[in-house]
Amino acid sequence: MKNLQASDGNLYAFIPKRLTKDASSLLYNFPHTVLFAKWKQENGQTVMGHATYRPVTKNVIRTDDGRYLLRYKNQYGAKGKLIIYYDTKKGRWSGEKFIAGEFAGSASGDEWQGFFFHLTILGLTNGEPCAFDITPLEQNSNKAGN
Q: 7, 37, 118, 125: which one has the fewest Cβ atoms less than 10 Å from its Cβ?
């Protein structure tokens, strides 16, 4: 297995907070926000791109197959969409990500942390609206030494 180098562009996985703390609510099964990110070192700097997805509405929709879904949109542009499904019978999540109407990836899982790890490790997709944070490597070195 190849060891990833920072210059390859490394991915991050994020475990989001739930929309509500009330376990009896359907919203408990959906995240407050979902974050996708990717970083690399380039030209003496650490460059991190990130996109945050927020619910379009807090109205959960029941699908024909009995699952529930909530739609999310990328806060940086309408090209990014995410759909999170929760199956109450199976206790299982699935999610699908689309960029400019094109399928960009999916994940599923039986457990909150594992599901969101696999979904968010997809990272950013080329053309996905995002924000960039740039930090000089010297500044990163100083933070590590403190």
A: 7
pLDDT in tens, 99-130: 999 999 999 999 999 999 999 999 999 889 99
Q: Per residue in 31-74, pLDDT tens? A: 999 999 998 888 888 889 999 999 999 899 999 999 999 999 99
Q: Counting Cβ atoms within 10 Å, is residue 46 exposed (0-12), middle (13-18) or buried (19+)?
A: middle
CA distance linking residue 91 with residue 80, whole number of Å: 27
**pTM for this prediction:** 0.83
The rounded distance, in Å, linking the Cα atoms of 129 and 132 is 10
Q: Where are the domains of the chain?
A: 6-145
Q: Where are the beta strands (DSSP E) in the chain?
A: 10-12, 34-42, 45-55, 61-62, 68-74, 80-87, 92-99, 102-109, 131-136
Phi and psi torsions of 38, nearest 5°: -155, 145
